[in-house]
Amino acid sequence: MEVEGSRNAKETLELAFQISNLLETGLDRHTLSLIISLLDRGVNPEPLSALIRELSSPPPHSHATSSSSAKP
């Protein structure tokens, strides 16, 4: 039974990874595994997805330039 559960988990992760690639999320298998684990433990998916988007987005561009603060 344990072997079957492990096989199902691997198949689920592989399917999630394929979907992730189709949607071009940029998430790797390890990250997806962590996300699935959190969801299995009852984490609310909407705030989790918002957090993932926030952490995945590039930092905002700063208008200040480093040359203006450089010392001669």
TrEMBL record:
It is found in: Cytoplasm, Cytoskeleton, Microtubule organizing center. GO terms for biological process: gamma-tubulin complex localization; microtubule nucleation by interphase microtubule organizing center; mitotic spindle assembly. Its main location: cytoplasm. Residues 53-72 are annotated as: Disordered. InterPro entries: MZT1 (IPR022214). GO terms for cellular component: gamma-tubulin ring complex; interphase microtubule organizing center; spindle. Keywords: Cytoplasm, Cytoskeleton. Residues 62-72 have a biased composition (Low complexity). Belongs to the MOZART1 family. PANTHER family: MITOTIC-SPINDLE ORGANIZING PROTEIN 1. This is Mitotic-spindle organizing protein 1. It comes from Apostasia shenzhenica. The lineage of its organism: Eukaryota, Viridiplantae, Streptophyta, Embryophyta, Tracheophyta.
